[in-house]
Amino acid sequence: MAGVDGTTVRVDAVEELAVDGLRWLVSTARETPEGGLAWPTDPAQEETDPTLYSGTAGIVSVLLEAWRHFGDDSYADLALRAGRGVAAAVDGHGDDSLYFGRSGMALVLHTLGAELGDTACGEAADHAMALVRAHFDGERWGELFELMGGNGGIGLAALAVGDPGFAVLAVEPYLRTAERTPWGVTWPFRPGPEARMHHMSHGTLGVAHALARIGHATGRADLVELALAGVADVVARDEGGPDGFLVPHSTPQYLPDLIEPLSYGWCHGPTGDAQMFRLLRDTQGDPAWAALADRCWHTVSHCGLPRRLRPGFWDNNGRCCGTAGVLALACDRTAENAGGREAYDFARTVVADLAARAVRDASGARWFNVEHRVTPSELAPRTDWAQGCAGIVRELLRFVRLGRGGDPRYAFTWPDQPQVSAQATEPIRRAGSDVAS
User: Fold this and answer.
1) Are 91 and 132 in contact (CB under 8 A)?
2) What DSSP string runs through 97-112?
3) How confident is the model at residue 366, as a pLDDT?
4) Would you say 398 and 425 are in contact if contact means Cβ atoms under 8 Å apart?
5) Interatomic CA distance for residues 356 and 266, integer angstroms
6) Which residue from 163, 301, 362, 380 has the least number of CB within 10 angstroms?
7) Which contacts qualify for 68-71: CB closer than 8 Å, 24 or more apart?
8) Long-range interactions of 221-227: CB distance < 8 A, separation 24+
9) CB 185 within 8 A of CB 178
10) Exposure of 286 by Cβ count < 10 A (0-12 exposed, 13-18 middle, 19+ buried)?
11) In which element (H, E) is residue 38 found?
12) Cis, bond preceding 252 (omega within 30 deg of 0)
C-alpha cells in the first residue's frame, strides 16, 4: 500500500488501512430483530456470536476506539446498536466467562452505559452479572478454571464493573485449589490429570494476573501473595535468560502433535507474560518486574517474528495469538518510554507486515490467518477481536495516535492489559517520511 513498506510507515496510510478494515467490519454485520447489530465470526456463516473473544462484544471495543479516535458519532451509534445485539443474547447464552460468555458481554454493556450514557446497556450489564453470580457453585462456573473461561476472568470483569466483593468471591477458590510445586504454585486449567499450562490465556500467569489485580484493588494481601507464588513458579521455568524470557507452553506438553512447545504471542508466550510483569511493576514497586518485562520484550523482538521463518512459526495476524498482540505490547512500551526508540521501530515493522498481508478491495480490508497443515492453507477472514479484523484495526488506530504524539489509552480497556498513563507519553519526534501525515 502507498506509504507502508518494509522500511517506511506513514501514519496517514495506516489510518486509511484501519478505515478500510472498519468498512469491511461494518459490511459484515447482521441486523437483529430488536434493531441491533450482531456479527458472525466468519462472514460466510449465518450464526452470530455475542462474545468478547470471537463476536459482537469484542467488535464493540473497536467501534468505541474508532469513535474516540475520529470523533465520529456514527461509530458510537454502531456501538450502541451492537450493544443491543449483545443485550438480546445475554439470557440465551450458555457460558458465564470473560472471553466466551456473559461476564465479557456485561463488561462491554457496562462500558457502553458509562461512556455513551445508555441506560438500557447499563441495566443489561447489571442483569448479565446477576445471572453470572447466580450460576456460581461456590468454587467454579464450569470446566475451565483460568483467565479466559473461568474464575479469573469473571473476577476481573466483576472488578471492572464496580463489584469488588464479587471479584474477591470469584478468585478465593484459587486459595483452596493451588497445587504446590518446587518453586511456587500452579493450577489445573480444567479438572483432571492433564498438563499444567503456564501463560496468560489458560495458565498460571492468567490466574496470577486476576489474583494480583483484585488483591491489590481490595487490600487482600493473601491474594497478592498467592499471585506472586504463581509467578515464581513460571519464572523458575524460564529457558530464555539471562537476556530473554521464554517458558514452555505447558508441562508436560499439552497436545504435542498439534501444539508447538514454545510460543511468542499474548496467549502462551512472552508477549502476554510481559503484561503480567507490567501489572506487578505498577502495583508492587519493585524494579525487578520491569526488568522481567524487558526480558520478555527482548525475546519477542529477537525471535524473528513477524517473518514466517518456517511453517507454523508465525501464521497469525490477530490480537490473541499473533502480530496485532505484539503490536499492542510494542505500543505499551512506546507509550511508557521503555527502552527508547526500539519499541516504536519494532511497532513500525509489525505494522508494515500487517499492511503487506491485508487483502483490500471495494468492500474494505481484512486479513487471512494460515494453517500450514491443511490445503488450502489460508483460513477464512474473521471479523472478531481475537483472530480477526477487529483486533487488528484496534491496534492500528492506537499506533496512529502514538505516531502523532496522541493519547495511548484505549477507549475500552481489556482487563488483562494494564492501561498506560497518558502522562507517561511524550510526542515521538522522528525525521523524514516515516512520520509524514
Assistant:
1) no
2) STTTSHHHHHHHHHHH
3) 98
4) no
5) 22
6) 362
7) 68/411, 69/397, 69/400, 69/401, 69/411
8) 222/175, 223/168, 223/171, 223/172, 223/174, 223/175, 224/283, 226/174, 226/175, 226/178, 226/185
9) yes
10) exposed
11) strand 37-38
12) yes
| pLDDT score recorded for residue 192 | 85
The DSSP symbol for 138 reads S
Residue located via cell numbers 517506511 = 8
**CB-based burial, 325-355: b 16+ in 10 Å, e otherwise:** bbbbbbbbbbbbebbeeebbebbbbbbbbbb
- What gap in Å lies between CA 394 and CA 397, rounded to an integer? 5
Alpha-carbon distance of 252 to 351, in angstroms, equals 35
Q: How far apart are CA 356 and CA 5, in angstroms?
A: 7
User: Which residue reads 508477549 in cell numbers?
Assistant: 271
The beta strands (E) that lie in 95-230 are given as 179-180, 185-186, 196-197
Sign of the dihedral through C-alpha 428, 431, 432, 436: positive
Asked if omega into 242 is within 30° of 0 (cis), the reply is yes
Q: In which residue are the cell numbers 466483593 written?
A: 165
Residue 325, all three cell numbers? 498482540
Cα torsion angle, 322, 325, 331, 333, sign? negative
Which residue reads 512472552 in cell numbers? 270
Query: Any idea which residue has 501514519 for its cell?
Result: 11
SS3 of 340-407 = CCHHHHHHHHHHHHHHHHCEEECCEEECCCECCCCCCCECCCCCCCCCCHHHHHHHHHHHHHHHCCCC
Q: Is residue 109 within 8 Å of residue 125, measured between CB atoms?
A: yes
Kindly report whether the global pTM for this prediction surpasses the value 0.90. Answer: yes
Between the two ends of the chain, the Cα-to-Cα distance in Å is: 15
CA distances 26 to 22, 402, 411, Å, are 6, 25, 19
pLDDT in tens, 161-189: 999 999 999 999 999 999 999 999 999 99
